[in-house]
Amino acid sequence: MLTGKLVRLRYARNKLVPLYVEPADSAVLALAEQLLLAYRASPGRTRGEIADDLSDLIPEGPRGLLPAGLAKLLEDRCEFEVESEHPPDALREAAFAAAAVARADAAKAGVAFDRDAVLKEVAAAVGPTVTVEQVDRSLFADLKDEQRVTSFDDISPEHLLNRYNVALAQAVLLRCQAMEARIWGETPARFRQLFRAVKFHRLICTIHESAGNSYTLKLDGPLSLFSATNKYGLQLALFLPALLHCKAFDLKATVRWGADRKEKLFTLSSTDGVRSHLADFGVYTPPELRVFADGFAAKAKGWVIAADPHPVALADGVWVPDFELTHPATGKKVYVEVFGFWRKGDVEAHYQRLRKGAPGRFVLCVGESMRADEEDEVAFGPGVYRYKRTPLPEEVARVAGQVAGIPPV
After folding, report:
1. Of 110, 126, 169, 382, which is least surrounded by CB within 10 A?
2. What is the pLDDT of residue 409?
3. What is the pLDDT of residues 170-187, one digit of tens each?
4. What is the DSSP code (8-state) at residue 216?
5. How far apart are CA 173 and CA 254, in angstroms?
């Protein structure tokens, strides 16, 4: 991800226009290749040493934003470690305490402070086999510039430039209040994949079917929440690559930008040339949902679970549940949704929408740990199962039986 200080953009009245790069541009490709060479040789070197090598490629001021942004994305692909034989914080504490005493003694005696003597004293106190050089090398080994690269996940220059364009858009979305995306001309499988990506990232979203084989997604942004904004903003940004796999879309987001948080408009469409840097792996399912589905199949007697249900048409739009439960003995179906980030108003409105559009056919699982506000207690009627950490299959089956009017066995 790019930090706010590394984002390159311009203002067009009330719009934010990121300065995307052209991945086929020879000059930009050459810059990307130079940076890649430095990081390909980075294993075994410290952050500080790499920064020194890149100083000529990253000038001060606005001209340095592009190479600095590319370097940040490459740094994110590195694994780092603290190389120290002994805990640096403990060595510093011992060294600073010994140095304070040594400085006071030196001042009284009118002699110069002897740093080597202090390090020798600390080394002797740590252990008989510890050398002065080890102490000196380890004192600040946990500082960021002293961390060493253990591995680098290599990529091509073209991949890096596509990743940079996506990162620019993601950095803007981290500060958005609300986002609306319209997607059209896709296959049913692609639409389901996109809806599952929304569920995977636990986003607050309403989906409406539009004319011309299209859907409109309205998503809350991180700045619309009272808390958990960093985590939710990251999830929203991580959803963007899935949207970029669609061949025809347009996106509009209201963004609070700058130190004064002025409201700006950000737009992105399939014609802007921003390409997803991630491979299209199809449908994603959160690990906790896979665990729930496996547990339900094993423990919930009398029910059959399907993990990829079709969207359910409601009078006011489309609902995308997580699971479809079928009771073979009666033929009844109940749809299950595990609600992600939520606020009191959102979850109450969603519950009323389902109660009106799918009465007796839904179970809404509401996780207490995903709540994003601290308002008063939420009161629900039938069809809601509240859980602490993970939904329990037996409890979901019990609630499903209640809403479907199936007597318990």
Report:
1. 110
2. 67
3. 999 988 989 999 999 888
4. E
5. 9
Give residue 172's Cα distance to chain centre: 14
Q: Side by side, which strands form the sheet with 304-306?
A: 304-306, 323-327, 332-339, 362-367, 384-387
Rounded Cα distance between 277 and 257, Å, is 25
Relative orientation angle of helices 26-40 and 65-75, to the nearest 10 degrees: 40
What is the CATH T-level fold of the domain 174-281, as seen in this structure? Answer: Alpha-Beta Plaits (3.30.70)
Residues 398 and 355: their CA atoms lie apart, in Å, by: 18
Region for 317 from its dihedrals, namely left if φ exceeds 0, alpha if ψ lies in -120 to 50, beta otherwise: left
Topology of the domain covering 287-404: Trna Endonuclease; Chain: A, domain 1 (3.40.1350)
Is residue 128's pLDDT more than 60?
yes
Residue 258 has pLDDT above 90, yes or no: no
Distances (CA, A) of 97 to 100, 129, 286, 310, 356: 5, 21, 50, 67, 70
Q: How many Cβ atoms are within 10 Å of 316's Cβ, its own excluded?
A: 10
Q: What is the CA radius of gyration of the chain?
A: 28
Overall pTM > 0.85: no
